[in-house]
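Deliverable D5.2: sample structural annotation.
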Amino acid sequence: MPRVRKIFRQLSFLIVLLATPTLACAIPGLNPAPTPPPEPTPHGDTLFFSASYNAPLEPGTAIPGTRIVYVQVVGDLHEFSIDGLQAYRQVGDSLTWRGLVAPGVFGDYRLRLRGDFLGRLQAEGQVELAVLNPAPVEIPPTQTPVAAIYVEGIPANYYVPQGARIPGTTLIFEGMRNDVAELSGTAGYPFFAPEDSLLWSGKLRENVYIRYNLRVSSLNENGLGLTGSAELWATR
């Protein structure tokens, strides 16, 4: 009898285990909610680009686009002119500046004075550029501009629903065709499979150029995901 009772308990436990998923599906509130699609990347009349930034410093030179000028070394101090005002800094001190760096481009520089073991100085930190009223125009990717203001390694992470435009480009995600993304707004090949790279170059304004190096990170009926980086040039 003890052995029979033990077998009965084991069978009862197995029945409960098998019935649990069915009961869970039948009880309201226990079904796992489907993961919602990502929010679309917003559009607007301003594009923001943020990246790590560094600029070498030599006496008599300015941090590109700013009114921060490195004047000279004075003993263990470093003399700067910031917006025309004299300022002394030591290695590790801040070098911040906000203002118009080029027509239609506003910059926010949050930097610090750094030195290396050879005594060379540079400004390091983060910069955010805001491009006002962009009007993207595609240009050949081999057309490299020459500009004093240059920021590279700008992280780019976009999610684009069907019928929407990839921010800062002329490209529009038209939808899926044979499991690949179809794009319009380009003179080049318009079809991109998951994990494909997507290169696009263009003007955001007459004096602002951008080059995207993206990769298709997701693609389904909800939209197109793109991840990569960008380079931006601006002339005064």
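Annotation notes: Residues 1-8, 10-30 have pLDDT under 50 and may be disordered. The longest helix spans residues 2-26.
The annotation will be released with the project's public dataset once the embargo ends.
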